[in-house]
User: What shape does this take?
Amino acid sequence: MNYTEILDALRQFTSRERIDFLPQAPEASPISDYTPIEKYVLDLKNVVKPETAAEDLFTALCKDVLRFQPTRQVGSREGWVDFMLPEPRGEPLPLELKPLFQRDGPDALWRRDANPKHHTAQVKKYLRDHEYLILTDLRAAWFFSARDFFFENKPFAELPFADFFARCRESGSILDTMRRIEDTAEKPELERQFFADLKIWFNEFDKVRWTPPEQAAESIILLINKLIFARTIEDYGLVQYRFTQDEYTRFTKLWEPKGAHRVVPKFLEFFEDFFDEYYDTEIFSQRIWERLDKDPANLQHFCDKLNFVLGVNSWDQTFSRGIVHYNYRRIDEDIFGKSYEMFLAANRKDEGIYYTPAGITAPMADSLVNSLAGQTVDQICDAVSSQTCDFARAEKLMAQLAEIRVADTACGSGGFLIKVLRSFWRQYQRVDQASAWVQKILKPENGEMYLAEMPPNVEAAIVFRRRQNFDNNRKLAAVVAERHLCCQISDSIARNVMTLRLSRELIAMCGKEIDFRKLTGTTRAFPDIKAILGKADSGHAGCGTRFNSRASLQRLVFQRHY
Assistant: This one.
């Protein structure tokens, strides 16, 4: 049986309410065409422990559908988890299995659907050490996240178990499947919740003494941004899960006997050096230790507030979430940018600082970029198609595209330019897709090796894609950002927020290509963000118009397109 037939057999079997033990005549039909299901029923008939029979069936499903052998009855700090599922891209995932059918007298089995509400304590203890937990009875699967469960006491999603395994088979990764399910789960209160907690985090750190005092707000935003950046890197799987909180706990255990005045500099030095070396952004070039009042009592106060804001010691508290309790893949630019801009605007109106809503900047950016680059990209896509293959013309058009700049000399915290970057990225993805035909020739589905002698059009396509970085998202994202963005930010806090927003957008674009293990030698994770933030004085759009402010840019866009 192939895997789809196996999963169909499982769906049919788990939908049954009752299975009778009838005398087997020679011509009688089997319970299922899938042999492990037959064995499962026979085991229960022979009074095998329901948990053991279910584990045998689950093991067979893993082997036949997902092609791996799960590890059974694995010990953890909080007890024994039924299964650990191997994950090549991260830590193994724990799975708790509940028996679906139980023997009811000598003549039949009855289905007993699992109820996740009856297993709250068990779920909680395993989530203390793991990012996710799967609970299943082979009919349904419930998914739990350590970020949400301690506050909401419920799974973030539920799927038919067979559908879940089908998705895992298609993606080739249980972890990626879990993340995709989590990222699409409805969270209607996420924006409001994140904004409320952002204010709480700021107010808690505001109780610490900073130096100089007049830069306290800037120092607090810088620290929060560092922590959010680190958690974003974790949530995209680019460093191991719980990296920040585990390292903070490690340094606390090592140096707490000497006092907080030793814990704080040791942790901050490691934390900031690591991310500055691997993820070379402006955020980590400025050091928090230099901005703290060094009085021992103040440093102890800082440690207490860092514990609270991170959330490392509050898994059972429900009054607020710490930074580690958010999934920063789900805090997308629209939520993140709006929360920060609302926060900054609310706290800095006395300086006359206001921010443009995303509902205006997004269509404005799309319209502007399409007017500047859309027609050129149309021509490039035609030139690189498999029917045309005019790569000499495509190279000339790419050079024209590279000359387009969009400047925002009243940048605020970068909301408009982030939308511009997204729009340019979509234009480049169009070219990528138009020339992707060559990849199917080089890596056909039948697994053949590269062609011994490449036709000229194939070789030209390979050279074009390599030169334009379409096979390396890390380099491509850097090129797009450095090539097309120009801005000027006079406000230091807004500049810091812009750096974080731009970095987060680049993380989403680059994906696994900026896993810290791949950033060997002098390889940069990101483009030169400092250069992007400092070149607006010479910036101009490719249409030849110099922009002195965002207002003039807005007027031009609306005049042309509305």
